[in-house]
Amino acid sequence: MATSSSSSANLEEDESLKGCEVFVQKHNIQQILKECIVNLCIAKPERPMHFLREHFEKLEKEECKQILARQKSNSQSDSHDDEVSPPPPNPVVKARRRRGGVSAEVYTEEDAVSYVRKVIPKDYKTMTALARAISKNVLFAHLDDNERSDIFDAMFPVTHIAGETVIQQGDEGDNFYVIDQGEVDVYVNGEWVTSIGEGGSFGELALIYGTPRAATVKAKSDLKLWGIDRDSYRRILMGSTLRKRKMYEEFLSKVSILAMLKKADWDYMVQHLH
């Protein structure tokens, strides 16, 4: 009798677990959680719970859009009008490529993979100076050692003599600069605003948005700068992100979400499946 009761309990447990596996597969839970963990590992946020909440809220919004789209499609297919007028042709609108923002420049995985690593030789003193100069810059604070090294390697030397204009307000912005030697004056609408000396930097917005220069920068003395262009900066970061994502995905592909549960988790889940 005890054996029969035990077999029955085991059978119910197996059925419950099979039901759980079916649910996980039906709703693509494994892939959803895997993608979530990958994004979490890449971002490494200080507030993981806040990050996860925003991540799942975004997924929920996307799901709602898909549901509404399906409902609209079904509604249209179910309607049978006696007379159906063909829709007017869509006007052909030529997209204007504007270099005023990142949204105008779409970088693909192919762009990152095709990037050829640039190495501009620098001595130890220069590397140390660059590291010190960008250590507190928000554009570089989140970089790991490999990314920072690739950025440093790609930076190229730029020289100007006293009085020359380095960047002109209103011009297209492509490069970010770190001052190795010398000093610059910054002007906005023709008025002097500030001076920047050795170890200082300018042109950050060019790396993020490629927006027109917000100020004019002139060499106050003979200058030696180190610069990096937006294309290199973004390809380096994108390539690094893709490598991290691939690494995390390969790791997680070997791990089943259900297999990660401890016995206590299984017991709790089975208990609440009945």
Automatic annotation (TrEMBL):
Which SMART domains does its entry note? cNMP, RIIa
Looking at the record, the residues that make up the Cyclic nucleotide-binding domain are 139-254
* Region Disordered: start-end pairs: 68-99
One GO CC term, this protein: cAMP-dependent protein kinase complex
Q: Name one GO molecular function term.
A: cAMP binding
Keywords of this entry: cAMP, cAMP-binding, Nucleotide-binding, Phosphoprotein, Repeat
Domain of life, per UniProt, equals Eukaryota
Question: Mind telling me which InterPro entries this protein's record contains?
Answer: cAMP-dep_PK_reg_su-like (IPR050503), cAMP_dep_PK_reg_su_I/II_a/b (IPR003117), cNMP-bd_CS (IPR018488), cNMP-bd_dom (IPR000595), cNMP-bd_dom_sf (IPR018490), RIbeta_DD (IPR042818), RmlC-like_jellyroll (IPR014710)
One Pfam family recorded for the sequence: cNMP_binding
What protein family is recorded? Belongs to the cAMP-dependent kinase regulatory chain family.
Q: What is the name listed in the Swiss-Prot or TrEMBL entry for this protein?
A: Cyclic nucleotide-binding domain-containing protein
